[in-house]
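Whether sequence alone determines local backbone shape is best considered at the level of individual chains. When preparing material for the folding task, we compiled for one chain both its residues and its backbone structure tokens. The sequence in question and its structure tokens are set out directly beneath this paragraph.
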Amino acid sequence: MNRFCLLAMSLAPLLGATRTLGEGAAIGLCAVVMGCLHQLLLAPLRKRVASWAYVLASLLLLAALASCLQLAMRAWLLPLAIALGHYPALLCLQCLASDHLLPDQRRWHVLAKHLGAVFASCLL
């Protein structure tokens, strides 16, 4: 199986939560913020922690980020949060897959291109 087939997991929130331009922009912005924060907060752990502990830390961090995202949207953007439903929580799969697929060199450059493409496809 091709490793880049795992990036197709980003299509679930994209297809389910983009009925309008506002919803598409919101889910795209959520994907960009969650992906950047995930990589930024895991950067110090990448070389210091064993592989099984790194995956566990990544999962715990993604659960915390998704919960904070859901709570923030319910606090400040309730109609949008109701319209998006649980699709922002599915962004955890995209972040987890992209973390394992990103190369060690030029990691941020590849991540920026990937998140830019996800955001552009959400707007389309």
Observations:
- DSSP finds six helices and no strands in the chain.
- The chain has a mean pLDDT of 81.
